[in-house]
Design a protein that fits this description.
Layout: H1 3-9, E1 40-50, H2 61-79, E2 82-92, H3 97-113, E3 117-125, E4 129-139, E5 154-158, H4 163-172, H5 180-184, H6 190-196, E6 202-205, H7 210-221, E7 224-228, H8 243-252, E8 259-263, H9 268-278, E9 282-289, E10 294-297, H10 313-316
Helix pairs in contact: 2-3, 2-6, 6-9
The structure holds adenosine-5'-diphosphate and magnesium ion.
C-alpha cells in the first residue's frame, strides 16, 4: 500500500477519526474546527518522539501508540484543558501493516477514552518518528500555568514517583521488571488537571524529573520551592532499592507524567476530596518558599545533596 491508501484504509477509519466533532476532519487540506465555546479558549501543544531517543525501536507498537498520545494529553492536563482534537505526523521507514495495526490500536484506545478526535496529520518516509499536536479547550484566562505559585502555597504531586525511571533502568540492565508498565503506559492526569482549575495556583507535568519541573515553577513564578524527601510518594517498587538510586529515580527520573502543582494552604480539604473522588493519591510534598531555587530537605532537616538533575536533550549530549 502507498501513503494515500494508508490514510484512507487505516487512519481515516479509526474510531477516533470518526467522532464528528470537527466540521471537516481527515481528507481535505486542512481540518476545520468549531469556534471554542463561549468563555473558553484553545490550548495547543506538540510533542515529538524519536526512535532511539524517546523509545526503544523494538518497543511494543501498541504501547508506543498509547504513549505518543499520552505524553501530549499530559500537557493538556497540566494546563487544566479538556482534550478535543489532535493531529498525527508520522515518519515511517517502511509500511509494516502489523506494526501499524498495533500502533494505531494503542493510540485509538486512549483517544477514544478521552474523546479526542484525530483530525489530520502527515505521513512520510524516514527514520521512525512520531509528532502529535493536541488541541484542548480551557476556561478563558483560567488555565493552570507555571507562573502563578505564591509564597506560602503548598506543593503537591499526584500518583507516585520514579516508576518509569526504574523501568528504564531495568530494561538497560537486561531484565525488564516492575517499572515497565509505568514507563510504557503512562496515564495522563487529564481529570485531575480539569479539577485543579480554580484551585491550583501553578501546575506542570512531570516529564523530565520532579526537581527539574519544580525548578520551572520556581523560575517562572519567581519563588523558591522546598520539598521534603520523606514525604515523597515513591513508586511501590522503589522501596526495595538502594537509597541513592531511589533518590535519583524519584527526584530526577523522567517519564512519570504526574502533575506537580501548588495551591493555597486553605485548599487542602478540597484537594483531599478531589483525590478521593478521582481515586488518585495526591500528596503534599513541600511548600513555596522565598529565594529562587529548589531545595530538598531530608528526614533530619538537612538539605539533601541533589541527585543529577532531570533530562535535557542537548546538555546530555555533552555530559
Ligand atoms: P497534503 O498533501 O495536503 O499534505 P496529505 O496527502 O498529506 O495532504 O494528507 C491528506 C489528508 O490525510 C489530510 O487531511 C491529512 O490531514 C490526512 N493525514 C495524512 N497523514 C495522516 C496521519 N498520519 N494521520 C491522520 N491524518 C493524516
Ligand atoms: Mg501531507
Amino acid at each position: 500500500v502507498g501513503e494515500f491508501e494508508l490514510i484512507e484504509s487505516l487512519f481515516a477509519r479509526l474510531a477516533c477519526a470518526r467522532m464528528g466533532w470537527a466540521t471537516v476532519g481527515i481528507g481535505d487540506d486542512c481540518a476545520l474546527l468549531p469556534a471554542p465555546a463561549p468563555g473558553k479558549q484553545w490550548a495547543v501543544s506538540t510533542d515529538m518522539l524519536i526512535s532511539g531517543t524517546h523509545f526503544f525501536p523494538d518497543v511494543e507498537p501498541d504501547s508506543l501508540g498509547h504513549k505518543s498520545l499520552a505524553v501530549n494529553l499530559s500537557d493538556l492536563a497540566a494546563m487544566g484543558a479538556t482534550p478535543k482534537a489532535f493531529t498525527l505526523s508520522l515518519a515511517l521507514p517502511a509500511i509494516n501493516q502489523s506494526w501499524l495495526q498495533g500502533f494505531t490500536a494503542g493510540l485509538d484506545q486512549l483517544a477514544c477514552a478521552h474523546e479526542i478526535q484525530l483530525v489530520g496529520g502527515d505521513t512520510t518516509k524516514g527514520p521512525l518518528a512520531i509528532s502529535i499536536t493536541v488541541i484542548g479547550e480551557v476556561d478563558l484566562n483560567k488555565a493552570l500555568r507555571r507562573d502563578g505559585a505564591q509564597y506560602g502555597d503548598d506543593v503537591w504531586v499526584s500518583g507516585s514517583l520514579g516508576g518509569a525511571a526504574l523501568g528504564l533502568h531495568q530494561i538497560k540492565a537486561g531484565h525488564p521488571g516492575a517499572g515497565l508498565e509505568a514507563l510504557v503506559r503512562p496515564q495522563p492526569r487529564v481529570k485531575l488537571g480539569q479539577g485543579l482549575v480554580g484551585i491550583a495556583s501553578a501546575a506542570i507535568d512531570v516529564s523530565d524529573g520532579l526537581v527539574q519541573e519544580a525548578g520551572h515553577i520556581a523560575h517562572r513564578s519567581r519563588c523558591g520551592v522546598r520539598l521534603f524527601w520523606h514525604r515523597m510518594p515513591l513508586h511501590p517498587d522503589l522501596y526495595d532499592i538502594e537509597p541513592d538510586l531511589q533518590k535519583t529515580f524519584a527526584l530526577a527520573g523522567g517519564d512519570d507524567y504526574e502533575l506537580l502543582f501548588t495551591a493555597p494552604v486553605g485548599s487542602r480539604k478540597t484537594l483531599i476530596a478531589l483525590g478521593a473522588a478521582l481515586r488518585l493519591p495526591l500528596t503534599r510534598i513541600g511548600e513555596v518558599s522565598t529565594g529562587h531555587a529548589v531545595e530538598i530537605i531530608d528526614e533530619r532537616g538537612q538539605v539533601l545533596d541533589m541527585p543529577k538533575t532531570g533530562f535535557d536533550h542537548f546538555l546530555s549530549a555533552t555530559a
